[in-house]
Fold this protein.
Amino acid sequence: MSRDGEPACPASLGEAWDWARRQIDAIDARVLLREASACSNGRWISHGETPITPGQCAQLTAWVARRKAGEPVAHILGWREFHGHRFAVTRDVLIPRPDTETLVDAGLAVLPADRPTRVLDLGTGSGCIAISIAVARPLAAVVATDASDAALGVASANAAALGAGNVRFLKGDWYAALGADPTRFDLIVSNPPYIATGDAHLTDGDLRFEPMGALSPGGDGLDALRAIIAGAPAHLTSGGWLMVEHGWDQGGAVRALLNAAGFEDLVDHHDLGGNHRVSGGRWRR
């Protein structure tokens, strides 16, 4: 018996599935059982009688205990799937989330695939945005920046693992990482910190395990977005695009910032939950 009175992890796939989903969320249980048992999704239903080894059972038991304690599944496994790719993650970077795929798709929609282009990703973290764009657009030259050495290490390893040789990483705070480089970009993308100080989400769920500096800039949550939008014109080609992710309730404020900075052809993109998650505009000057 386990400490909370539940039986220890059983020895067959079907019983292990029933046990795990009583302990934790069913989606998390499915992922952890799949990885611990090295079997395909749903096999525990179609072949529930299949035994799992003691080692696999011990692994699943340990992982379920960690998840029950609140640790994110991405940290337990050491990776998270994003835009069809597996990205390594650590506590030094944000966990890639499906909502951020909206930003990648918005960027790809304005980035031609048949000619060389230049892309800048500000605050790259795990590199999931820059690398996903680079893989989808092999002719693009992508620059990804971050102020954290640890984050750049994670991102560089992900780029190597996914064969994204067209990404270059630079250390620095937003545009400062570029130094005096006069290069202008056809697309700038960023998922900056945007959660306001005091937001209850910062002390809840997986966010408790992620770097605070990548989640909140303090204040009303808009400071990083203000800096990125204000600085973008000096680094965009004429006709170039800026696309930024923001909070579900910040779309109006971000759109006003884009408009005030002189951007045209403003666009809104909604995430899987129907929330206004990405805003963008074109620099035509």
